[in-house]
């Protein structure tokens, strides 16, 4: 937890005012830490990004569409470009009954163009569907996330508790961690937007 910073002032006549508590500086990078309802958190991120777009904010990035399940194909996932509406399939067909991870790194690589375009545009916010197994291993969207952060572009993503340690190491422990609640996302974005003015 980030505690308020307290500034100590010397005591005595004619000395400056007493200690002042200040809020910690808002960080431009944040992750929604989800619990059991991973799909609900992805819907929350999607809804939040679309609300900002409807209000006229310049938002770019990718959100995850709800996964479809089929006995024949297993889990089917895709990413949606918030700007163009283009869909990027990110799951492999591993055959009926497979329980292995179906994430397709080639699909994620194809979708990375969305984040590279966002870096060139410098929007108010870039949303990234998740920081997951690929990013924790240094692939997936890792390079694009690092480039966005290095350039000071605000980034919001989703992280599962099992990848929280990797996320903290990836960001140098310099990212806000948010609960999966719309109010928390709007509060964070408002503070980021105010800081940018």
Automatic annotation (TrEMBL):
InterPro entries, A to Z: DUF2478
Protein keywords: ATP-binding, Nucleotide-binding
Statement: the UniProt record of this protein carries the keyword Nucleotide-binding: yes
A GO term for molecular function: ATP binding
Entries under Pfam families matching the protein: DUF2478 (PF10649)
Record-given protein name: Molybdenum ABC transporter ATP-binding protein
Source species of the chain: Microvirgula aerodenitrificans
């Amino acid at each position: 937890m980030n505690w308020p910073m307290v500034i100590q002032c010397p005591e005595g006549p004619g000395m400056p005012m007493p200690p002042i508590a200040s809020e910690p500086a808002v960080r431009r990078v944040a992750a929604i830490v989800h619990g059991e309802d991973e799909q609900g958190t992805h819907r929350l991120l999607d809804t939040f990004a679309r609300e900002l777009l409807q209000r006229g904010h310049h938002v770019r990035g990718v959100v995850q569409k709800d996964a479809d399940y089929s006995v024949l194909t297993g889990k089917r996932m895709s990413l949606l470009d918030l700007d163009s509406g283009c869909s990027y399939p990110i799951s492999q067909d591993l055959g009926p009954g497979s329980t292995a991870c179906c994430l397709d790194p080639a699909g994620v690589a194809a979708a990375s163009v969305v984040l590279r375009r966002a870096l060139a545009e410098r929007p108010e916010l870039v949303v990234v569907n998740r920081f997951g197994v690929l990013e924790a291993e240094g692939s997936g969207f890792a390079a694009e996330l690092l480039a966005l952060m290095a350039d000071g572009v605000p980034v919001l993503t989703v992280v599962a508790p099992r990848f929280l340690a990797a996320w903290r190491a990836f960001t140098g422990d310099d990212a806000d961690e948010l609960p999966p609640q719309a109010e928390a996302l709007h509060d964070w974005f408002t503070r980021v937007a105010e800081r940018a003015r």
